[in-house]
Prior knowledge:
Elements: E1 3-10, E2 13-19, H1 24-30, H2 35-43, H3 47-62, E3 70-72, E4 78-80, E5 85-91, E6 94-100, E7 104-110, H4 113-117, H5 133-154, H6 161-164, E8 165-167, E9 176-183, E10 186-197, E11 200-207
Antiparallel strand pairs: 1-2, 2-6, 3-4, 5-6, 7-11, 8-9, 9-10, 10-11
The chain binds coenzyme A.
Coenzyme A (COA) binds next to helix 3, strand 5, helix 5 and helix 6.
Amino acid sequence: MPFYTSIQINATTTAYFWHITEDVTSLFRAVSLKDTSLFRLEGMKSKEHQKGFLAVRMLLQHIGYNDYDLTYTETGKPVLNDGKNISISHSHKFSCICISNQIMGIDIEILKEKTLKIAPRFLEMKHLENLSEVEKIMKATIIWGVKESIFKIKNEVGISFPEHIFEDEFCLSDKKCSAELHFNNTIEKFNFHFYKVEDYIFVCVFSNN
Ligand SMILES: CC(C)(COP(=O)(O)OP(=O)(O)OC[C@H]1O[C@@H](n2cnc3c(N)ncnc32)[C@H](O)[C@@H]1OP(=O)(O)O)[C@@H](O)C(=O)NCCC(=O)NCCS
């Protein structure tokens, strides 16, 4: 199946999802790639990584952009040539991109028990109290996604998920919440929205500054 869905997060922010069912060859034939992208694609070790990368280009084409409109900074942050903000994420069968007038970062993560096992390493365990096992996995995945997204926004070496990023208390029914980054003697505030997409959690984080 090709284009899966889009989510209008606010007036100027939309996330687009590709559900990857194609093989690498079909995706490759359907996109037009610049030389640097071809080089990157050839260097990817797994077919899954290649498919995720190509599915991002399918999404760009689906909404009127193409691979030539997308470049990367030295640290790997994606940049669109028309000045809009873009963030990119992939996980197993999904690739997604988010385009916005605001600064934001996104993350999509498959729901899996392992995220709960490693939760003490990156979140405040009191935030998982009084939840069922399934709810704990969901909440831990949301918080992980929030921290990855803040990392994508800030793009700074030295940010530690447990030591510098703090999620506020939230319920799964809230669909949104806030978090803070305490780093380099400053406190920055962020707000985030979260969604369940099939067996995945999708998170979009905005900078409040
Ligand atoms: C960069 C990083 C956030 C990517 O996240 P990920 O979950 O591995 O992968 P995702 O699929 O969600 O995101 C990949 C996309 O992020 C984007 N990205 C990569 N580096 C980026 C950066 N420095 N800033 C913003 N976006 C970046 C790219 O668009 C990339 O996809 P593409 O290369 O195909 O275009 C991650 O690799 C990372 O370094 N995280 C910090 C890890 C960390 O501090 N962990 C501590 C745990 S306690």
